[in-house]
Amino acid sequence: MLAQLPHTQEIPLAGWTQTMQRSVLRQMIAVVSRPGILSFAGGLPDPALFPTTDYAAALAHVLATDPKALQYGMPFAPLKQHIVQLMALRGVTCTAEQIFLTTGAQQGLDVLARLLLDPGGEVMFEELVYTGAQQVVAPFLPHILPVSTDLVEGMNVDEVEAYLAGGARPSGASPAFIYTIPDAHNPLGVSMSQTRRERLVELALAYNVPLIEDDPYGLLQYGEWEIERFQSPNLPISQSLPLRALNDSHVFYLGSFSKIMAPALRLGWIVAPAALVTKIGVVKEAADLESSALTQRAVAAYLDAGHLPGHLATLRREYGRRRDAMLAALYRYFPAEARWTEPQGGMFIWVELPEEMDAAVLLETAIAQENIVFIPGHAFTVPGRHIHNCMRLNFSNCSEEMIEDGIKRLAKIINCEL
Ligand SMILES: Cc1ncc(COP(=O)(O)O)c(C=O)c1O
């Protein structure tokens, strides 16, 4: 007979979970959902801009006409052809054989980490990095090689070179991969200069290190602040070319429909070196067998109907206006000692407050006094790095009026504390 065990006995967990932390962003969800709160915190697209009607029509059409839509199945080839065309608009030439469909860019990142990283291995991250990238590698207990990021030019490639030239791993070998977001960085909002992109790719080739280029915001470009705005309904081509346009042997490109259509589709893609696509498939199979056949076919039907260019033009116009509204309000109300990025695209502005300010304390005051939330910058730091005076502001999910009002109220608190 089994001995009666006390209910309090803890289930033993895998060792790496001892370092596990709930992301600050997830913790914030409870606060953000309070009535009356004004949130600059998340990275959410505006639900009012989801292509609901056109997607509903595409979905209904697929369900009515395609008997394979609810079955297990192969990746949907027509969708890959559409992605080849989307990539061409980003200035990237690729073939359907190089496209691998994923359940969002997050899964793309997860699958690549499993493919490339050994337990206890090394990865190169920017010191301020998308939290989902840190979560993906955490089970490997990796050694992270942190690289700084310039707020105008992007990732510091001299530091990348210094690591690689020194033989980053104790064995003298190179890290498992370098992860970066060259366009409209999350959380920094910066886009990497063309010169740095070229050098980064050269380094990757010289030291035989794969580059993971995460590009969920590449098709959401608004042009320079106050200088130029894309008015044309044509899709924009980034002013700088993606890393994948510069090299197809060492760059793994991550794309996503989350920000250009809707996150709940959970659909993204990797543009990978063709020789590795089969292996990537084996890794993904272990996670979820395949991405939803229904969604793949419905998104393909939406794209077949030609809705995306007009939809993207709407997103660029709306989000571009909100970016402009936030920058204008920052210039109008924030103290002269503060500085911030002027993103060409994406959803975030990074603000550096005067050195003596603590963004975590400011957040508490902002919630208590003004019902406003944002993410303090320290939420994005890699282990061993700390910053106290920075904040990430999201501009995609509030109206221009709310942005102007919220930044004014935030500035009031900041100016009182200075
Ligand atoms: C930089 C970055 N990568 C990946 C993702 C995840 O995207 P997806 O919804 O396609 O999984 C996000 C989402 O915010 C992101 O900001």
List the helices and strands and how they pair.
Blueprint: H1 24-27, H2 29-32, E1 38-39, H3 52-65, H4 77-89, E2 99-102, H5 104-116, E3 122-126, H6 131-137, E4 143-147, E5 149-150, E6 154-155, H7 157-165, E7 177-180, H8 194-206, E8 211-214, H9 243-246, E9 251-256, E10 268-271, H10 277-288, H11 293-304, H12 308-333, E11 339-340, E12 348-352, H13 359-370, E13 372-373, E14 375-376, E15 390-394, H14 400-417
Parallel strand pairs: 1-13, 3-4, 3-7, 7-8, 8-9
Antiparallel strand pairs: 2-10, 5-6, 9-10, 11-12, 12-15, 14-15
Helix pairs in contact: 3-11, 5-6, 5-10, 7-8, 12-14, 13-14
Bound molecules: pyridoxal-5'-phosphate.
Number of helices: 14
Counting DSSP E segments of at least 2 residues, the number of strands comes to 15
In one word, what is the shape?
globular
Largest sheet features: 7 strands, mixed
Helix content: 25-40%
Bound molecule kinds, no repeats: pyridoxal-5'-phosphate
Number of domains: 2
Provide the CATH superfamily of the largest domain.
Type I PLP-dependent aspartate aminotransferase-like (Major domain)
Structural class: alpha/beta
Strand order of the main beta sheet, please? 2-10-9-8-7-3-4
The stretches of 5 or more residues where confidence is low (pLDDT under 50) are: 227-237
| CATH architecture assignment name of the largest domain | 3-Layer(aba) Sandwich
Task: State the separation between the terminal residues, measured CA to CA.
Answer: 69 Å
Strand percentage: 5-15%
CATH class of the largest domain, named: Alpha Beta
CATH third-level topology of the largest domain: Aspartate Aminotransferase, domain 2
Compressed to H and E, one letter per element, the order equals HHEHHEHEHEEEHEHEHEEHHHEEHEEEH
| Radius of gyration from the alpha-carbon trace, in angstroms | 22 Å
Overall pLDDT score? 92
